[in-house]
Amino acid sequence: MFADRARIIIRSGKGGDGHVSFRRELYVPDGGPDGGDGGKGGDVIFEVDEGLNTLIDYRHRRKFSAQDGQEGGKRRCHGANGSDIILKVPQGTVIKEAESGQVIADMSGENRRQVILKGGRGGNGNMHYATSTMQAPKYAQPGQDARELEVILELKVIADVGLVGFPNVGKSTLLSRVTNADPKIANYHFTTLSPNLGVVDLEGGGFVIADIPGLIEGASEGVGLGHEFLRHIERTKVMIHIVDAASVEGRDPVDDIHKINAELAAYNEELARRPQVIAANKTDAIYSEDEDPVERLRKEFEPAGIPVFAISAVSGKGVKELLYHVQAMLRELPEETTVFEQEYDPELHMPDTKLPFTVEKSEEEENTYIVEGPRIEKMLGYTNLESEKGFQFFQNFLKDQGILEQLEELGIQDGDTVRIYGLQFDYYK
Q1: Cα separations (Å) of 130 from 254, 297, 353, 379?
Q2: Coil/strand/helix, residue 341
């Protein structure tokens, strides 16, 4: 099976924790804090590799992780940053958030390299938290957590023209005739199980053409391999509908075109509005003395602005006229590749990082707990605890930061004392 879709879990590196330490030198009995900062966690980066054309590397491995940042050290030593992980993908790969299906990035056009998940920031060491009232802080900032995200990788081929049609109508034969592609051809339904790309060289400019595997009714609903194939025509600018004009398998070519357009519209309305041309193939096998099937196709579709060309992919009859008409259609269309816009930004879903603080049970006073931290000290300076609103704000701050939860874990009881920078409170739940 052609590997054009994969579901993987990516994880950025956790930031290294800040370090708590104090200078210990001869003749310096009360050295200040010298704990270093933690290193930054590694990023998860996707990069286009021109040598790849499938996502096979992601079919048998599920999780990809960047390296964590190193913890800070003594003597203001900064922890080492974690190594990034670079994931190579073929051009045209779209990265989606798995749960919502929203686009995170499209590795097409000029986008050759993109950071998808940033590593966590390293935490500050305790050397940052010395103040005039707290000269020996015993806390440091923890590193920012790693980010983990499940993503879907989808390869949507980049081609100017897409060949669409039911199985066994001659798409692969036409592609092998007009390009340097070498698709496997056989007289079986669903012979082509992967999109085949080829370059058509014409005087005045060529174009890239993709043979999209045969569609069947219900493809837009995922019947058969519908979704696996339909995604590959989302970037094409022009579609060539190939039909079996000779009805070798007993199907009606007019009905075939209507069914294919219905499948395109059901999958993506915009696809059905793309410029189209009909290639009535196998004209060398038409032996009917009834109404000419090619004329019947023209009467049905040319009034709607869809031209019909009679061709034989086997003999080459009519193929050149078809290709030059498609070339003229492409000249009138914008040159840039269709690029899917970002719908989901992992940065906007980053969890908040808690501020550094310590909660300890006093060893000197019974039923007393001590809370310290740089932001707490700063906040006490501008919060009016005498007012009801100010005290409520302070209580919510303690709750949001997880301080009340830690006090409860240490076994605080109603009526016990909480001391915060010279202020004293009685605890009541």
Answers
A1: 81, 84, 21, 16
A2: coil
pLDDT tens string 238-288: 999 998 888 777 788 888 889 888 888 887 888 888 899 999 888 877 766
Query: What is the spatial distance between Cα 339 and Cα 344, in angstroms, rounded to a whole number?
Result: 15
Indicate the range of 66-70, 215-219, 295-299, 348-352 predicted with least confidence: 215-219
For every residue of 211-241, DSSP letters joined together read: EPPPP-TTGGGT-TTHHHHHGGGSS-SEEEE
Query: Tens digit of pLDDT for each residue in 127-172?
Result: 776 665 556 677 677 888 888 999 999 887 777 888 888 877 777 7
Please tell me the distance from the alpha carbon of residue 396 to that of residue 113, in angstroms, as a whole number: 43
Q: Is 209 exposed, middle or buried (0-12, 13-18, 19+ CB in 10 A)?
A: buried
What does the pLDDT read at residue 378? Answer: 63
Question: How far apart are the C-alpha atoms of 241 and 272, rounded to whole Å?
Answer: 12
- Of 3, 90, 103, give the one whose Cα is nearest residue 49: 90
Beta bridge partners of 242: 279
What residues contact residue 412 under an 8 Å CB cut-off, 6+ apart? Answer: 369, 418, 427
Cα dihedral 173, 175, 180, 182 sign: negative
Q: How far apart are CA 257 and CA 189, in angstroms?
A: 18
Q: What is the DSSP string of 368-401?
A: EEEEE-HHHHHHHHH--TTSHHHHHHHHHHHHHT
Handedness of CA 319, 323, 325, 326 (dihedral sign): positive
Q: Tokens 């058969």 appear where?
A: 224
